[in-house]
Amino acid sequence: MLTIKLNQMQFHSHIGFYKEERVIGQDIVINITLNLKDVSLDTLAKDDLNNTINYGQVYQIASEVVAKKDTKLVETVASLICKHVWDQFEDKLEHVTVAIQKKGLPIDGVLDNAEVEVSI
């Protein structure tokens, strides 16, 4: 099995339930794990991008979803990224997992981040 991970992608977003979060924004960190359908070592040794997934395109999908200003929940953002990645690469994928950490939470307490994870 081939697993591709895009780790610690950092974005400034305007995602939030509260108006202040959408105005000021906050930093989020996104991790995406792609589990590809069986790909043989011989196929991978051919050194052909068509035999894998271009993770630059996956990054672009995440970036475009985060840039939308009308989303309130990180759960929604994670599910949209997951769905768009799946839709674009379904023929090559076994599973997709998107995890988003939201920092700077409007919570009265000590907390580094909140994280949601969505998988297909």
Automatic annotation (TrEMBL):
SUPFAM superfamilies: Tetrahydrobiopterin biosynthesis enzymes-like
Keyword terms: Folate biosynthesis, Lyase
GO BP: folic acid biosynthetic process; tetrahydrofolate biosynthetic process
GO MF annotation list: dihydroneopterin aldolase activity
UniProt domain Dihydroneopterin aldolase/epimerase: residue ranges: 4-120
InterPro entries documented for this protein: Dihydroneopterin_aldolase, FolB_dom, GTP-CH-I_C/QueF
Catalysed reactions, as listed in the record: 7,8-dihydroneopterin = 6-hydroxymethyl-7,8-dihydropterin + glycolaldehyde
Pathway(s) of this molecule: Cofactor biosynthesis; tetrahydrofolate biosynthesis; 2-amino-4-hydroxy-6-hydroxymethyl-7,8-dihydropteridine diphosphate from 7,8-dihydroneopterin triphosphate: step 3/4
Enzyme superclass (EC): lyase
Domain of life per record: Bacteria
Gene3D superfamilies attached to this UniProt entry: 3.30.1130.10
Keyword Lyase tagged: yes
Its EC number(s): 4.1.2.25
GO cellular component: cytoplasm
Function: Catalyzes the conversion of 7,8-dihydroneopterin to 6-hydroxymethyl-7,8-dihydropterin.
Family membership noted in the UniProt record: Belongs to the DHNA family.
Protein name, UniProt field: 7,8-dihydroneopterin aldolase
